[in-house]
Backbone:
């Protein structure tokens, strides 16, 4: 019994000693008299960092500024597994202005760390990572004015980085550099979502993920805006004696106004041992615009016998426009027996989906003649079916024969027909001009439940999904937020909103794709009661029944007077668009219904008087 009691005491003591804790910091705290509790916080993060030593501990930082003048000592070396959490309301700033050392240093291994809701300033690296955290999460932070925003260039095997809803601004070199220099097999996962990353034109990369042989890369890079770097996104690998690969998704990002390329990919397989480098990342709905070199630059180098490179990425719904050089540039080098295979799926490839990519005025608006919308220098045949090519206006295209049009399209593609390599590009099923579609069925009820399908006509295509500039669909000005596109891109379906048109007249359906292609169609959309009459929403709410005699008076006025004039029809259309929310609000209480009846009765009396005058005439 005594032994069991002793074991219990030891376990209780160990649990108390190593329990996770929250340690509080405030500009109104005191490092000498405070104990780190919420009632008696420390003054500096530096002090809190000497107490937060157990994995899972959190330093909770109140709004305010924490600088060297306040007693902070940079760099702050976070304890193993210790997280920094800023305020949900207000701003907490780690001010390392004029500090050339890192501001935060994370050196954990196999432990998760979070840095949340902080504003970090400095002239050096703002967040430096050593070791291999199981996951480093950086969320809702602002990183400003440093040399590098988030930097990891350290030997190791496995690591995960997740950066979400952050602003990384004015970095001198990298916004995010996440590099794995492992000699053996390792996994590198990088998730960057919903961030704004803007640098200076001489900076290196907005986002760079890099590694050596034996590394398996998984990337999830979505909905970011990256501008004014040498390269917006750079993915690279150097495989020597072990295989390396990239998988994942790069989707709905904007890479604009980079000095060099919007996206740059480098796959290097270097002998003398057996080594392969491959990429099967999906590039979906990205905007590559106004970059100084290429929209996307993809280079494979296989050097040495048994060294191989393979690119099989799918490109869907991307907008590639106004880049100074080629829109998308694919090239390969095969040296000393190495084998490189370049098979991007730009539409109609293994995915069986049409490309729906848009190419607009690359190569300095087609002025210099040295570059192309798509440039492929390989021995492989590349599918590129069902893409939009803005080489002619619709009117110009209609005046020309198919052969002449295809000749002009071919002038904007460099493939085996133009260079010594034998690969060609299949750009059949090309799309030119705006959207053209019809709506079915021809008439639906605007009850918020009816389904409408848009059918694309020949020579046009819906883009499945939303890009960085979302597809916009409206019905009579009412936005449709959710819609589905068939895998072929020929059908688009949505639920008709709760609207009505006057007398079953036409409603205007308008769709604009991310790259600006637009089209319209008409469909009759009516709201009816059981007897087929347009409802009077406000009056029904006020008088409690669609059969009230007051509603019959209002309906006659609508049908016999208002609908006979342009101004009256416009008024009725506005009424049926905006009155349902008002009617719902009125129907909630007796007081509101009485007030609505008091407002409507003078109008009804006036209408009855007008009807009497018309009869007397």
Residues:
């Amino acid at each position: 019994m005594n032994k069991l009691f002793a074991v219990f005491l030891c376990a209780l003591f160990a649990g108390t000693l190593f329990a996770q804790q929250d340690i509080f910091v405030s500009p109104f705290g005191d490092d000498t008299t405070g104990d780190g509790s919420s009632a008696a916080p420390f003054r500096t993060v530096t002090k809190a960092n000497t107490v937060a030593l157990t994995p899972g501990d959190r330093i909770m930082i109140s709004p305010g500024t924490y600088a060297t003048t306040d007693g902070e000592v940079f760099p702050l070396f976070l304890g193993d597994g210790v997280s920094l959490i800023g305020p949900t309301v207000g701003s907490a700033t780690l001010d390392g202005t004029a500090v050339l050392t890192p501001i935060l240093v994370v050196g954990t291994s196999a432990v998760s760390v979070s840095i949340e809701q902080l504003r970090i300033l400095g002239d050096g690296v703002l967040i430096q990572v050593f070791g291999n955290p199981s996951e480093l999460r950086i969320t809702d932070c602002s990183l400003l004015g440093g040399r590098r925003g988030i930097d990891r260039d350290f030997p190791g095997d496995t690591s995960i980085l997740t950066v979400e809803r952050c602003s990384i601004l004015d970095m001198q070199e990298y916004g995010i550099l996440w590099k794995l220099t492992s000699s053996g097999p390792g996994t590198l996962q990088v998730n960057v979502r919903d961030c704004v990353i803007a640098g200076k034109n001489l900076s290196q990369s907005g986002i760079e993920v890099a590694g050596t042989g034996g590394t398996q890369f998984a990337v999830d890079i979505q909905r970011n805006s990256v501008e004014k770097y040498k390269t917006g996104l750079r993915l690279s690998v150097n495989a020597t004696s072990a295989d390396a690969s990239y998988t994942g998704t790069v989707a709905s990002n904007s890479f604009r106004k980079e000095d060099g390329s919007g996206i740059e990919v480098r796959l290097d397989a270097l002998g003398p041992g057996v080594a392969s480098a491959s990429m099967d990342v999906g590039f979906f709905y990205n905007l590559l615009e106004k970059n100084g070199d290429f929209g996307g630059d993809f280079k494979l180098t296989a050097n040495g016998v048994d060294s191989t490179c393979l690119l099989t990425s799918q490109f869907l719904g991307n907008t590639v426009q106004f880049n100074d050089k080629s829109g998308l540039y694919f090239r390969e080098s095969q040296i000393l027996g190495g084998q490189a295979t370049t098979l991007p799926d730009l539409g109609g490839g293994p995915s069986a989906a049409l490309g729906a990519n848009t190419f607009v005025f690359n190569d300095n608006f087609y002025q210099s003649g040295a570059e192309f919308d798509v440039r492929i220098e390989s021995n492989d045949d590349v599918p590129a079916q069902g893409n939009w090519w803005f080489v002619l206006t619709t009117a110009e295209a209609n005046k020309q024969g198919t052969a002449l049009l295809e000749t002009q399209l071919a002038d904007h593609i460099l493939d085996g027909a133009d260079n010594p390599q034998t690969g060609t590009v299949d750009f059949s099923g090309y799309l030119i001009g705006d959207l053209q579609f019809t709506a079915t069925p021809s008439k639906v009820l605007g009850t918020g439940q009816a389904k409408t399908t848009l059918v694309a006509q020949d020579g046009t295509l819906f883009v499945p999904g939303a890009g960085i500039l979302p597809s916009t669909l409206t019905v009579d000005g009412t936005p449709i937020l959710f819609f589905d596109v068939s895998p072929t891109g020929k059908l688009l379906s949505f639920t008709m909103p709760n609207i009505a048109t006057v007398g079953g007249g036409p409603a205007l359906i308008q769709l604009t794709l991310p790259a600006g292609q637009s089209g319209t169609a008409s469909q009759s959309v009516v709201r009816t009661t059981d007897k087929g009459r347009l409802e009077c929403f406000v009056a029904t709410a006020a008088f409690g029944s669609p059969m009230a005699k007051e509603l019959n008076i209002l309906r006659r006025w609508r049908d016999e007077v208002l609908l006979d004039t342009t101004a009256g029809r416009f008024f009725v259309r506005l009424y049926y668009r905006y009155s349902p929310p008002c009617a719902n609000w009125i129907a909630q209480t007796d007081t509101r219904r009485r007030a609505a009846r008091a407002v409507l009765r003078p109008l009804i009396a006036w209408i009855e008087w007008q009807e009497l005058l018309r009869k007397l005439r």
About this structure: The chain has a mean pLDDT of 85. The chain is about 20% helix and 35% strand.
